[in-house]
Write a structure and sequence with these properties.
This protein has 2 helices and 6 strands, in the order E-H-E-E-E-E-H-E. The protein has 135 residues and is of the alpha/beta class. A 4-stranded mixed sheet has the order 2-1-5-6, with helices on one face. The chain has a two-stranded antiparallel ribbon with strand order 3-4. Strand 1, helix 1 and strand 2 form a beta-alpha-beta unit. Helix 1 runs antiparallel to helix 2. The longest helix is centred in the N-terminal third of the chain and has 19 residues. The protein starts with a strand and ends in a 24-residue tail after the last strand.
Amino acid sequence: MPLVKVSLLKGRSTEEKDSVAASIQTALVSTLDVSDANRYQLFNEYDGESFRHTSGYLGLTYTDKLLIIEITIREGDDDDHKKSLLAEINRNLVAAGVVAEDDVFVLITEIGDANVSFGKGLAQRATTSRPESRA
């Protein structure tokens, strides 16, 4: 169920956005045991006037390549899993050549199973026991 929202400055190529999407999905699959078919990603592009951020924070330096990534996941993953997810997303994006190490800002939000419907107005995850796989 992860819902991924990526906010970025306009001007990235389709190939770069594909690399961002694949980097994040790969990290979700390997760290949170999410099925690869369980992919929901939104890209929000902003012009410079609407995409504002500090040039640095907590010893980090941000550029115009900064990605602000919001991930909504189901409750239940421990902090170690979430830290692993953060680290792998960063590693994957840097390895893909789409950002520098500092240019990855990630916010994870957890929600309960009754708080999401995949369709038909049903809270599908709230009506079944939690499976081993997060598919």
